[in-house]
Amino acid sequence: MLKKNKEWIGLLLIIVLMSCSKSSSGDPNEGDNGGKDDSQNELIGKTLPDWQEGYLDIHAINTGRGESQLLIFPDGTTMLIDAAGSLISPTDAIPPPSQKPNGNVSPGLAVANYTRHFIKTASNKINYLMLSHFDPDHMGTYSSSLPLDPTGTFRMGGITEVGAKIDFDKIIDRGYPDYNFPTNMASNSRIANYIKFIDWAKAHKGVIAEQFDVGKNDQIVLQENPSAYSNFEIRNIISNGVVWTGTGTGSTNTLPSGPEVAAADGSENIFSIGFVLSYGKFNFFTAGDLQYNGRTAHPWKDVEAPVAVVVPEVDVMKANHHATSNCNGTTILNSLKPQTVIIHPWRDVHPNTETLSRIFTANSGVQIFSTNMTEANKPRLGANLNRLKAVEGHIVVRVDPGGEEYYVYVLDDTNQDYKVTGVFGPYKSK
Q1: Which of 72, 206, 260, 317 has its CA 20 to 30 A from that of 126?
Q2: Measured between alpha carbons, how far is 162 from 261 in angstroms, rounded to an integer?
Q3: Total domain count for the chain?
Q4: Does 332 reside within a domain?
Q5: Would you call 368 helix, strand, or coil by DSSP?
Q6: What residues contact 312, with CB distance under 8 A and at least 6 apart?
Q7: Using one digit for the tens of pLDDT, what is the confidence trace for 319-330?
Q8: Where are the alpha helices (DSSP H) in 311-347?
Q9: End-to-end CA distance of the chain, in Å?
């Protein structure tokens, strides 16, 4: 009897040990913290800790009115890409989600407050202010009712409001200095106001303005301590339909010349800026509203296709064009094969369920985080809705020093305390 009891005790001990081993192994693609670091779960309900030297932060800032990304490089250099500022009405035919944190805080101010909070332990300013393209949900809408800057030079909304409130060193866009592609853009009141803002920043702040230079890997570089992070690089991939060749700093124009492109004046999305950021093994791809509308009649409008030829597999991807239809096509997704995708929806048609299905097909284990989701859109997504890891909040990717792995944090966007509501990871970089 004693022998049998010992056998049962031994068997029970093996089962317990196997169970503990299984629970501690933690598949990072299951969406929890893998059991690796309980301190990460302890962050829930607390303000996300400040950036620290060696880490790479990628923030998806949610205002409910467009797209804005804050990047903090390992040495503390900072870059803000876009500053959501659409003035869309909540009763629009394709309505937006709720404005965040509330209707009393303008989108530009919300982005400025968020940025100011998280850059204080880094450079404490914006080193690079980048505009991916010239649509209102990325740069801000113009209205004569918007407040003037303190000098009375320009109206403050979206990127011009952020730039008026936070010091920055350099601004990069797709049009400087002429703003004449595909046609004269300065005739647009929104662009004209933006040009006034740039002239003001150059004259009063000593800001440098540049056009995004496709193919380069030395236009956006570390400013605070570059020698400490030789494994960090940003490669400029696309702008204005010009795409990196994949060799050296070469680039090639994928768009036809002449009136055909000029007639595409309303197709601002295809002119978006895109780049790949690399930090050790970690890779990140972002490209504004890159899409392929009208490619059947005009194959050159599929600007995702030439990009797919030169991009590597990535760990994290910002979904092109808010993951609506006619973007994030099979070709580019099969090249990128993202492990994590961040979506910035701001209207009732974002994201699109067919687009989500393409993302899952490219990588069945992909983790998708969405900053927003209208209630009306949820039923349209079907089974894909339950596969999303988040549908509300600021999303933060924090890459460990060296780039070997990263966590994803979801932050409360209903106030400006930036408290953690969810922790996911660690994810191993490819």
Answers
A1: 317
A2: 32
A3: 1
A4: yes
A5: strand
A6: 276, 283, 335, 336
A7: 999 999 999 999
A8: 330-336
A9: 54
- Starting from the edge strand earliest in sequence, which strands make up the sheet with 405-411, in order? 208-211, 168-173, 126-130, 78-81, 69-72, 56-60, 394-399, 405-411, 420-428
Mean pLDDT of 83-110: 94
Cβ pair 324, 353 in contact under 8 A: no
16 in any annotated domain: no
Query: What CATH number is attached to the domain comprising 186?
Result: 3.60.15.10
* 236 half-sphere exposure, CB direction, 13 A CA radius: 26
pLDDT attached to residue 266: 64
Q: Which helix or strand (DSSP H or E) is residue 237 part of?
A: strand 232-239
Give the list of residues 6+ apart from residue 352 with CB closer than 8 angstroms, or none. 323, 324, 325
| Beta bridge partner(s), residue 277 | 234, 284
* 63 lies in some domain: yes
Can you tell me the mean pLDDT for 9-34? 41
With contact defined as beta carbons under 8 Å apart, do 236 and 243 qualify?
Answer: no
- The tens digit of pLDDT for each residue in 416-426 reads 999 999 999 99
Look at residue 251 and tell me if it is in a domain.
Answer: yes
